Amino acid sequence: MKKIWVFILGIVTGIILTILFAVIVSSSSGGGRSGLNMFEQPGDCLISKSSLKVFQVLEPTAALAMIKDDFSSGAYLLVNQDGKTYYDDQVIKLPSGKCFKQIGTYQYPTKDDRLKTVPVVQIM
Fold first, then answer.
1. Residue 57 · residue 80 · CB < 8 Å
2. Strand ranges, E, within the chain
3. Which has the higher per-residue pLDDT, 103 or 33?
4. Measuring CA to CA, how many Å separate 37 from each of 17, 22, 117?
């Protein structure tokens, strides 16, 4: 009888340790996007143009975008905390009285395995 309890206790301990390990690994992964560095306070208005064009969606509420009609300007990670989703080739127009403020930086590998760092912006 004692061997059965030792066996059951071993299984329960293994299950608990597996769950604990999974929680620790998932919490240390940066909450979704690795390479994301958010500022404590939003910066100044970064983009004076009135619209950005999405060229790659990373998550439904985060996308890489460029200034529309000025693709030499570089990329930005546009995040939306209002729950609205992005899609490829979407044009994001800036509402009057608001601007694209930098709230962090995002680093990601390109197709040729170089690291690229871009500003993270949000409409504020």
1. no
2. 36-38, 45-47, 51-59, 62-67, 75-79, 91-93, 100-109, 115-123
3. 103
4. 31, 24, 10
From CA 90, how far away is CA 38, in angstroms rounded?
A: 24
d(CA 103, CA 79): 9
Domain ranges of the chain: 1-31, 36-123
- CB distance 97 to 65 below 8 Å: no
CA 5 to chain CA centroid, Å, is: 46
Query: When comparing pLDDT for 27 and 106, which is higher?
Result: 106
Task: Note the pLDDT of residue 33.
Answer: 57
pLDDT at residue 90, as a whole number: 92
Rounded to whole angstroms, the Cα distance separating 107 from 35 reads 5
68 CB contacts (<8 Å, ≥6 apart)? 49, 51, 52, 53, 91
Q: How far apart are CA 57 and CA 53, in angstroms?
A: 11
